[in-house]
Amino acid sequence: MLGKGGKRKFDEHEDGLEGKVVSPTDGPSKVSYTLQRQTIFNISLMKLYNHRPLTEPSLQKTVLINNMLRRIQEELKQEGSLRPVFVTAAQPADPLGDSFREAQPAFSHLAAQPLLPAELVSTTPLEACLTPASLLEDDAFCTSQTVQHDGPTKLPPPALQPVKDSFSSALDEIEELCPAPTSAEAVAAAADAAADDAKDHPSESGVQRPEGVPESRAAEPKLMDSLPGNFEITTSTGFLTDLTLDDILFADIDTSMYDFDPCTSATGAASKMAPVSADELLKTLAPYSSQPVTPNQPFKMDLTELDHIMEVLVGS
Amino acid sequence: VLPAGFGNLMQDVLWCFSQVKGTIDIGVTEADIISTVEFNHTGELLATGDKGGRVVIFQREQESKQQPQRRGEYNVYSTFQSHEPEFDYLKSLEIEEKINKIRWLPQHNAAYFLLSTNDKTVKLWKVSERDKRPEGYNLKDEDGRLRDPSMITTLRVPVLRPMDLMVEATPRRVFANAHTYHINSISVNSDYETYMSADDLRINLWNFEITNQSFNIVDIKPANMEELTEVITAAEFHPHHCNTFVYSSSKGTIRLCDMRASALCDRHAKFFEEPEDPSNRSFFSEIISSISDVKFSHSGRFVMTRDYLTVKVWDLNMENRPMETYQVHDYLRSKLCSLYENDCIFDKFECVWNGSDSVIMTGSYNNFFRMFDRNTKRDVTLEASRENSKPRAILKPRKVCVGGKRRKDEISVDSLDFSKKILHTAWHPSENIIAVAATNNLYIFQDKVN
After folding, report:
1. Distance between CA atoms of residues B9 and B379, nearest Å
2. DSSP string for chain A
3. Tens digits of per-residue pLDDT, A9-22?
4. Which of A25-34, A174-183, A249-258, A285-294 has the highest mean pLDDT?
5. Which pLDDT value is given to residue A176?
6. Quick check: A243 contacting B, CB < 8 Å?
7. How far is B129 from chain A (nearest CA, A)?
8. What residues are paired with B400 via a beta bridge?
9. Where are the domains of chain A?
10. I need a surface site. Which of A78, A108, A292, B282 has the fewest CB within 10 A?
């Protein structure tokens, strides 16, 4: 009850706003839409995992928030699938628009021309785009935007960059990290990175509850872990079933990255992995371990130790 | 006092403060927050339930010739602890003792009966008066010890002697262990033998006499919980047809079901849904369409639903759109993101009909509540506050200024206090008396006596 409805001052979030990178070619409306969508996505995730632990959360609320997340995720997927086409630039608007209309995501009419912000006519000043949740409220954002198509007379600028927000960069990182996007920890790592980006993001600090920062920080690895591979929230069991600490601690970890080649055991007790993969590995292990891991330390596998453990397990 | 059946036009009614119950403390004890308000069928009794699991019943005093202007005030009649907090050991979660709903049974004898429910358990309470006490037993000593039977030589019949009035509340039935999810509604059937309880995914039908069994009449739980996208939000029996009931959903739909059609009413007889207005679509369209309350009119011809921003009246014969739509606080439409962030968008406002179904009422924020006259299409915003609490003071209409110049008595949207929400209101069945729950205070307003 406390703190709800209280007005938040714009000053609190100004520091975080400067950190946001906005492509100069972006129209303000597109960035605002993406910003709001991302804000709502973050808020929704926080809500699902920050509820009062004493009593059972309201199923209605959970379902509504889950539906919200699914809708946004659907949109992101559709936009993500179209980005490669867009990067080749100088393409006429219509094919993209057509493919969008075919896909018909939930908010298709809002996202009708999201990658062609130059076409969007909006009088909203840029400052209005860089606002926390409470100040995102504007009739232009929360209600449907009437996207004005200026038609073929207005072509997109030739070197139009795709919209880069921390979400897009997170998705890019997923692709870089692991070609098969089904690995859970790759997503977790990328999402973790996105979360780090998002921490600088004003919306992140804006949505922190009065309970304070530590709780939300603790919640982050928790919620990132529950995002399964493919970023497919629809297949997640985490939202609608009780998520306990056990689920996180004993979640299956993909050990393919540190399965050791028997041939390398000849080199000695310590088998060193290549630094690049070690860093990646440490990044993926970060959500699961409670101790901080310094990236510079090479990862060591002690075979004799493993043998010892096996003996104990087998009970010899 | 004008009977409420005739001439209840907005311009004729001036609402006056009558009473307020509850403390004036700045800090509100959470347990004192009122969570439900309900008049009984005659309006003689007014019951409230709170977050601490208590039920307080007020009784209207007899109107006296000496003080006609007091118009029958409501005084505390009985207070009892209905539900206690429990612990679900299997899930390691607390079960709140908060009273979600109270529903009265019609009166058959001197005693009053009501149903009260928390998230998991429904209880039938009997509230009865005792004003006589038997005296003159000779089987016991003064201090209650049984006397030696061999010492008793006569049989004396005890005599009933008057005593100070005592009102007792006793739990007569406990209907437990039938709901996996949180109970949001209970509704007494017009046959007065059965009632239903609805949780997020299921609706059960009970017989008042049988506590260890209930019939499941609606089940919308999917086989795979990950596919769950819609929950039941409210349910109510038709006031006259004991086979008919409605339930509302989180997607803004209402289903009317006929229990004669099949034992499990998963297939609706009627399906009410308004097509979405594309010009108003936003991220929050679904959430604000979620219905928080559904109420049949007294006549049984209409159903009223409350979603976050509007109240709608539906004709049972027209499924494709509501008959009437009333804007409760449309100025919040541009604030939905903030209201989502602070959870206010999930507030469950209730709505009520007046006795003649001509006026409907619902709550809002800043301790405002709204009334809509269905005939004249006029509406009014009133406030429940201690400042307007002089006896018989006429309530002044309030106005929220949406933008631009704010007039002297208006309040701007940004100044609204979202922690002061009026979720629960009740309207006397036949008179212009309303009860409005504002956090931990209960306000009673009446129309002006000439």
Report:
1. 11
2. -TTTTPPPPTHHHHHHHTT----TTS-HHHHHHHHHHHHHHHHHHHHHHSS-SSBPPPHHHHHHHHHHHHHHHHHHHHHHHHHHHHHT----HHHHHHHHHHH--TTTTTSSSTT-GGG------HHHHS--HHHH--HHHHS---PPP-GGGSPPPTTPPPP--HHHHHHHHHHHH-SSTT-HHHHHHHHHHHHHHHHHSHHHHHT--TT-HHHHHHHHHHHHHTS-GGG-GGG-STTTS---HHHHHT----GGGGPPPGGGGGG-SEEEPPHHHHHHHHHHHTTT-SS---TTSPPEEEHHHHHHHHHHHHT-
3. 544 333 333 333 33
4. A25-34
5. 57
6. no
7. 37
8. B411
9. 28-79
10. A292
Q: Indicate the pLDDT class of residue B26, thresholds 50, 70 and 90.
A: confident
Q: Are strands B411-412 and B400-401 parallel, antiparallel or unpaired?
A: parallel
Which two three-digit tokens encode residue B402? 């949406």
Q: What is the pLDDT of residues B125-147, one digit of tens each?
A: 999 999 999 888 787 777 778 88
Amino acid A265: pLDDT: 41
Residue B294 confidence (pLDDT): 98
Smallest CA–CA distance from B338 into chain A, residue: A134
Higher pLDDT: B156 or B273? It is B273
Question: How far, in Å, are A10, A132, A135, A218, A301 from residue A16 at the CA level?
Answer: 11, 10, 14, 20, 41
Window B:143-202, CB contacts with A under 8 Å = 181-182, 200-201
What single letter denotes the amino acid at residue B204? N
What confidence tier does A133 reach under pLDDT thresholds 50, 70, 90?
low
* Chain A residues touching residue B281 (CB < 8 angstroms): 107, 109-110, 143-144
Candidates A197, A183, A192, A231; CA nearest to A80 is A231
Inter-chain contact A137–B337, Cβ cutoff 8 Å?
yes
Name the band, by pLDDT with cuts 50, 70 and 90, for residue B24: confident
- Which chain A residues touch B421 with a CB distance below 8 Å? none
Mutate: best of A10, A47, A64, A247, partner B, most B CBs <10 A: A64
- Residues 6 or more apart whose CB falls under 8 angstroms from that of A211 comprise A50
**What whole-number distance in Å separates Cα of residue B436 and Cα of residue B74?**
13
B304, B313 contact by CB (below 8 A): yes
Interface test with A, best of B26, B283, B411 (most A CBs within 10 A): B283
Q: Is the pLDDT at B97 greater than 60, yes or no?
A: yes
Confidence of residue A313 (pLDDT cuts 50, 70, 90): confident
Q: Which residues pair with B236 in a beta bridge?
A: B246
Interface test with A, best of B276, B335, B342, B366 (most A CBs within 10 A): B342
Hey, are the CB atoms on B334 and A236 less than 8 Å from each other?
no
Q: pLDDT class for B256, splitting at 50, 70, 90?
A: very high
Give backbone dihedrals phi and psi of A234, rounded to 5 degrees, phi first: -65, -25
Q: Is B341 within 8 Å of A36 when comparing Cβ atoms?
A: no
User: pTM for this structure?
Assistant: 0.68
CA distance B312 to chain A (A): 21
C-beta separation of A69 from A235 below 8 A: no
Q: Report residue B90: phi and psi, to 5°.
A: -70, -40
Q: What is the mean pLDDT of chain A?
A: 52
Q: Measured in whole angstroms, how far is the alpha carbon of residue A19 from the centre of its chain?
A: 18
Q: Return residues 256-315 of A near B (CB < 8 Å).
A: none
A66 Cα to chain B: minimum distance (Å): 8
Provide the residue type at B15 as one letter.
W
Q: Which of B280, B416, B419 sits opposite A143 (nearest CB)?
A: B280
Nearest CA in chain B to A207: B341
The angle, 0 to 180 degrees and rounded to 10, between the axes of the packed helices A166-177 and A59-87 is 70
Decide if B233 touches A, using CB distance below 8 A. yes
**pLDDT > 70 fraction of chain B, expressed in percent and rounded:** 96
